[in-house]
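Example record for the data management plan.
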Amino acid sequence: MTPEEFRTLGHRVVDWVARYMETNAELPVRSPVEPGDIAGMLPGSAPESPEDWDSILADLDRIILPGVTHWQSPSFFAYFPCNASGASILGELVSAGLGVQGMLWSTSPACTELETVTLDWLAQLIGLPDSFRSATPNAGGVIQGTASEAALVAMIAARHRTMTNLPPSPSGRGPGRGGNAEESFELTQQNESTTSLRASPLPDRLRRPTLSPRERDAFANSLVAYTSTQAHSSIQKAANIIGLPPGALRLVPTDAALRMDPAALASMIEEDRAGGKTPFFISATLGTTSTGAFDPMTAIGPIAQRAGCWLHVDAAWAGSAFVCEEFRAPLSGVEHADSFNFNPHKWLLTSFDCSAMWTRDVGSLTDALSVTPEYLRNRASESGGVIDYRDWQIPLGRRFRAIKLWFVLRSFGAEGLRTHIRGHVALAQELESWIREDDRFELAAPRSLALVCFRLRDDASGERTTSLLERANASGKLFCSHTTIPDGTGSARFAIRFAIGAVGTRREHVERAWSLLRDLAG
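Corresponding structural encoding:
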């Protein structure tokens, strides 16, 4: 394809995307096809000869669109949003056109340096402490593919830091993060809301400065991680991937608001210490997937620091809201965290994939992940004066993802991003009020930002609410997802999740969806 041919076809493809952006509100939100329908429309082998572009583009409408669930529809309220603004789409086009493989600074300096600066901008925009930004030694940000990848690399770094048995720095930063390899911790309750851990000596077996291979294996098998019962399944997947033994990820109970219970966390840490285990990693969630609950960082942070555990904060969805100062209260205590992550591709107008992660212990991350064969050696890397992001992630290769985020931040500006978030939160507040006014419905959990969970009243079995959701989704006029929410009795009840966040969602789309749900409720 010549540049001129690309220019001509490119205009046609951009027109197709623009037409889709104009008309996706008219399409059934959830794909109505049955399993195998799309595959059945495709030939059994690739074409032997080139096909003309008229046929290829026509098949986008004939084959592909019927099998698409339209995440960009203004009536998509399922899961969490997956934004694709025009600015980010154009950024993707530029990134694809440049075709950069940004594994090393030397393979494209702009790819690396733009990412570093853009992540610093973003950290500032959401109110992260300066200790997470690249100007602070041993700190900085990186774009991962997903929050699942961020959790995995954080857990790998935490294990590496613990296994190297390095002492803490006097400042409390660095490998030990204020914990002490010569201490274990005993639970003390100070008052109803504050839990602390009191130091006591570790067993002699853990005082050894070096470990034999057999001892090292035994030590690795003693590692224990913690997250709440409401945390995302990616934390369990990360534990599985790095080979933690079954049961080594401990699920901490939650309080009545479905937030991690700090007293329970501290008690479990002490219990595991007493049983010869080695706590090494805690994952707290700001905005759980099920109900949008926020774990109490001000209580969890000091516990993690005293226990010598790496504290990872998963704010995959809710982190976007922190561009608005009025929504930042849950960030209090984040200064104790070793890593923090959220997904601009969920709610901050940036197309998938773009997951922003920061760490205050880059050394443990890169020491754990760096492997340098001869063919990757170069003068810039060996100078120590550049960042090689290949050492901050699982894969070697990486796309120029910073461009689309850069386009979004520059084209919307901080105020445009705040307007986007505030508008969706205001719509959720209005939906919440409509639910309260209709005695056929009840809130299943407190509204969290732009997430509202509700059910039909007097529906203990959940059958009526389930039927309502299925009929609403089958209509093609909206798409909501569901969850089950603990009710305090040991049972969990079915609820509809209504997550507002699509780029084009306006009041009329929420009002139309609510009207449909009311009509179907009878």
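Summary line stored alongside the record: The first strand starts at residue 76 and ends at 77.
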